[in-house]
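Both lines are retained for reference:
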Amino acid sequence: MGILQRFRSTSTTWARSSRIRPQRILAAVCLACACALIVWALTPNESGTAVVVAKTDLAPGAELASQDLALKDFPSELVPDKAFTSIAEAKGRHTSAGLSKGSALTASIVLDEQALPEGSRDLLMPIRLADDASAALLQPGQRIRLYSSLPDGGSEVVVEEVTIARLVDKPEGIAAESGQLVSVILSAEDAGRVAEFAGLPISFAILPH
């Protein structure tokens, strides 16, 4: 083969190898998109979630007004279960227990009077029962008697009779707490009695039908 023919053969081979095929362009674009998607998914969300908190210390049974509330950003993994995210949502409700300044407001720490029959003077109040295993026996509609263990020993009847309205699902992860949260139907007087035992373990006995 002459020099001229070798030169032509080499030029043709280089031209073919230097062509950019459409398939390669498409593959490169797909790879770039995949990398961008991975980076986006792994980038932490630092914006947080706005949660309603108490602007001042609040007493049990206090009616929530706009001036009592504020919004505070919480990291997503620290947002309490069923937390209020707008002041309008919490305004006008009543607290079921005392709240300290900066405490997050959730559906479990306000009284839900709207779920009761019209004209009823009873209240719905969340109560955390100390014994998870025993609380598994409870069902909505059951009547129970509430007891509290006293710091110096012994126990005391908190309320003679309340009715279980519902068992509140326990959150998972960092926000989880020990003890079963239940919503009970009781009078305003009994609600005040329960509030006196805030912070103490509450146990129960199931009353016969």
